[in-house]
Amino acid sequence: MGRKKQDMWIRLMVLFANMGRCVYCDDAQSEEIDHVVPVKHGGWDHWVNMVPACEPCNQGKSAKGLLAWVAELTYQRYSAEASTWPHGNKGLWWMRERIEHEFDEVMARVEGVKSELDDEARSDWFLDRYWFLGKNDPVYFWRGWISSRVEKAREEGWPKPPPPPRMRVVRTRLGQVMEPIPEDETA
Questions:
Q1: Are 80 and 73 in contact (CB under 8 A)?
Q2: pTM value surpassing 0.85
Q3: What is the C-alpha separation between 95 and 127, in angstroms, rounded?
Q4: C-beta separation of 91 from 83 below 8 A
Q5: Could you tell me which of 44, 19, 22, 41 has the C-alpha nearest to residue 33?
Q6: Is the pLDDT of residue 34 over 60?
Q7: How, if at all, do strands 175-180 and 167-172 pair?
Q8: pLDDT category, 1, cuts 50, 70, 90?
Q9: Residue 15: pLDDT above 50?
Q10: Which are the contacts of 96, defined by CB distance < 8 A and separation ≥ 6?
Q11: pLDDT class of 7 with cuts at 50, 70, 90
Q12: H-type alpha helices, the chain
């Protein structure tokens, strides 16, 4: 089971979830897409298994499971505070509580991203506007270019685009040309 290159509209839709921030550290801007359940361990290569991540978090998590990754981050963050004696004030039980707390916070953000990605109006907004972008286009370019549009659409509740104008083919010497059909005319 291998990874496939996702369409650009899907990649942009995932990168702008969680307000465009990394779901793991909730601090840095999202730069990459991470699989919550790694593909190596049978994770699905679909947007329901994808979350936005910053490069350090994505590289650090690699093919680790979510709980193992959060435990490692929490231990790195709080090891200086922890007691060397396991049963002290900040011993094993304290560290376990910290890990559980951090894991609950990360899981809440992951579930928030999943609910964002399941929102039909949101996914339709990205599909309607960016379906034509190629898979190999640089995502950082498009991310920067559309960020203001995404913010505006988020505020407006992911509006549908206006319907395309009614057009008809008009033949000329140079070939087929399209012209709009006036509103008062029936087709």
A1: no
A2: no
A3: 44
A4: yes
A5: 22
A6: yes
A7: antiparallel
A8: very low
A9: yes
A10: none
A11: confident
A12: 8-15, 55-61, 66-78, 92-118, 120-130, 139-156
